[in-house]
Structure of Putative transcriptional regulator:
Amino acid sequence: MKKVATKHEKILEYIENLEIGHKISVRQIARELGVSEGTAYRAIKDAENQGLVSTVERVGTVRIEKKHRSKIERLTFAEVVNIVDGQVVGGSTGLHKTLNKFVIGAMKLEAMIRYVEPGNLLIVGNRDNAHRISLERGAAVLITGGFDATEEVKRLADQLELPVISCTYDTFTVAAMINRAIYDRLIKKEILLVEDMLNPEKPPIFLRLDDRVSRFHESVQETKHSRYPVVDANGKLHGMVTAKDVVGHSSDERIERVMTKNPITVTPKTSLAAAAHEMVWEGIELLPVVNTQHHLLGVISRQDVIKSLQYMQKQPQVGETINDLIVKGFEEVKERGGELMYRGVVAPQMTDPLGNLSTGVLTALITEAAHRRLRRQHRGDMVTDNLTLYSLKPVQLEREIHIRPRVIELGRKVGKVDVEVYHDSQVVAKALVTAQLIER
């Protein structure tokens, strides 16, 4: 039976088939597809979350090219407008285009123009000649200081479909804001999501509610799998059925009566680490992947998840997280008895408003020390399951602290580490960290 697309899915398909740069609105979508404005609004918001469109104040919603995760650090000009809280003064039809790199125009015009190339963004103040020449060379313009562009520059921007953006911030602040946005995307890029594993060209194998147990046995023979998601006629997930579920049931029994209802699911945006933890914790071999309407998109197996996490660990790292920055100043030291210890100084960024070591930072340091200690005995991944912290004494700014993790239990699925934090040979904090272990 052919799956019937919902109104929401029809709108998303319509948006996806629009030309890059096409402007849309809630009212227009509602009128053209014969749906309510509320339905159109929700679908456009979903399209924005999927990276199909971008909404810019005073311009509207524009169809943009959906970026692959390998290019996630690239920004569109529409996104730049939102980052700097800017206003588009010309060339709005080019907002969907992708920014390759930005050039700061804090130099003489002759020197500056040498760096301006097609696909660039020139960040410059009130310099009309620089605006015009930049556009002629195929680069967009971001005018800082709240200045406007001349009518000639605006006409040229519209003609060449290259945005001219004005914002109130100074050049240095704007550059820092764009850099921060790109840097955040680099961090996101190295976090594997469920959608990175899904193959859209390979639809999931499933059974239907009205199938019989005999169909389950046929599927096992055909696919060699022993677990299947169960969907209705519209593709909505209702349950999971395994070999264990059908034992003792006749071949004519409906799958709906033997399946496990309301199974645990993940979405394409779920991180693989979270999916792996769910599988280990619940003892699940297969997780269905669903969209916001709970329609089945695919399945991921525990083996696939672990292989992907292994692959990602071999990739070069780009961009540091907050945790990376916290532990950066700590070195690993071996004590006389061969035990490991981590030593570092409390930096200003690690303190609370009173100048003491922040509880959040302390938690991050303890967790990282525990994980590093476990990795010496367990070659795999791990997720913190529980942390009990006793903060005994405050530690002040610029004091040296020693962190001593000690493994007290290590099983196949769980590891427990006792962690003590010292300052001047006095215990200032203690913690018990329990981690779920994921085999590689």
